Amino acid sequence: xxxxxxxxxxxxxxxxxxxxxxxxxxxxxxxxxxxxxxxxxxxxxxxxxxxxxxxxxxxxxxxxxxxxxxxxxxxxxxxxxxxxxxxxxxxxxxxxxxxxxxxxxxxxxxxxxxxxxxxxxxxxxxxxxxxxxxxxxxxxxxxxxxxxxxxxxxxxxxxxxxxxxxxxxxxxxxxxxxxxxxxxxxxxxxxxxxxxxxxxxxxxxxxxxxxxxxxxxxxxxxxxxxxxxxxxxxxxxxxxxxxxxxxxxxxxxxxxxxxxxxxxxxxxxxxxxxxxxxxxxxxxxxxxxxxxxxxxxxxxxxxxxxxxxxxxxxxxxxxxxxxxxxxxxxxxxxxxxxxxxxxxxxxxxxxxxxxxxxxxxxxxxxxxxxxxxxxxxxxxxxxxxxx
Amino acid sequence: xxxxxxxxxxxxxxxxxxxxxxxxxxxxxxxxxxxxxxxxxxxxxxxxxxxxxxxxxxxxxxxxxxxxxxxxxxxxxxxxxxxxxxxxxxxxxxxxxxxxxxxx
Lengths: 387, 104
Prior knowledge:
The complex is a heterodimer.
Chain A: E1 11-12, H1 24-35, H2 52-63, E2 72-75, H3 78-92, E3 97-102, H4 107-118, E4 122-127, H5 136-142, E5 147-153, H6 165-173, E6 178-182, E7 201-205, E8 217-221, H7 259-275, H8 277-295, E9 301-303, E10 312-317, H9 322-333, E11 335-336, E12 338-340, H10 345-351, E13 357-361, H11 368-386
Parallel strand pairs in A: 1-11, 3-4, 3-5, 5-6, 6-7
Antiparallel strand pairs in A: 2-8, 7-8, 9-10, 10-13, 12-13
Helix pairs in contact in A: 1-7, 2-7, 3-4, 8-11, 9-11
Chain B: E1 2-5, H1 12-18, E2 23-27, E3 34-39, E4 43-48, E5 53-58, H2 63-66, H3 69-77, H4 80-101
Antiparallel strand pairs in B: 1-5, 2-3, 3-4, 4-5
Helix pairs in contact in B: 3-4
């Protein structure tokens, strides 16, 4: 069985990377957006068309329970958001300082922080997780008088563990520490209430559980004064000034927006609101649990999180490289998953000796039948590798 | 990485031939009999015996030396013992060129 380019995959279980398929209304909204003239205050006079950036900011504020739509900044993706926030925070500091991160992080956090550490702009402590969780107690142990920044994930893209980010945010707010929370795996996956998130910044991406297309992401920033803008350019406002506008959101947005991406994000949020976040969260957790039940008792399968909080299941098969298992699942069973380090190298040192693992991740559009078939396929590969 | 669609399916004889040039892992009890081949610095291959589709990976820094290597393996595999001899000569020649670039 071959996967010809363009053929739909039979069972798509790589939703933690990019969800597929998208709700039909997302594709319709992208098409509608491209058919109409682009409209945004200051950038166009086409007043009859939809102002996608403005409407989407309103939708984001409603969805994430905050009253400041203009404090949502559009970016390309979570990596872009994290770069703008991390570099922007460092630019704002007058002297080198101490930052904290964790061993669960994606390279979108680890690489900017380590680059800046290498340049002497900050010193960095990486807090170790335990069973996939980072506790406030361990974070407090790492804090020094000169600690100004904590950057950590809200949900691990390898272990599917949800971090108690609210407790960390409360601690940071009381100790003059800026928190950047990476919600790439959680936005749209679990309810997120930013009104209960004291200070800091929350990062999201559009192409995962928010059902947008690749190329759109963003962040919410409560206090714009905490971050220096690292991009300058046209905003359609105050154009006589050669300085970047101070007001939000133009302060952090320069250049033409990704209108189709923003339109897809708007439609994705509306889809989640219509279906219900709680219903979606419950369904995908149930799908992950069903898959886990299918493989949990196989002695040739090493499962890294028996009960993940997010629909992300990572495992290895004894006597078979994860890369080869992925190839067999794809080619012999038409199951699309992800193998390797998942861009989160440090966590693998703790769980699998740094060799990587197989990750399957579920979406609202997967079915129980697909989960059972995938479980049966993984058991079949495990048996084939150990006979 | 390149995926090739071959004119004829991969045979057990080809897998045996590969063993003279690198590490072959075989999993005959999979749904389809899977194999992989790894020759350090040269290429790695993944595929199924009896299948016409195969995935070949090259090391970028030696691609100019190894881009034809998979096709040479296919060609000389059909020539039995003399094919092994000839392929070893080719392999040694490529390896000598690689040594110039490898860190000492």
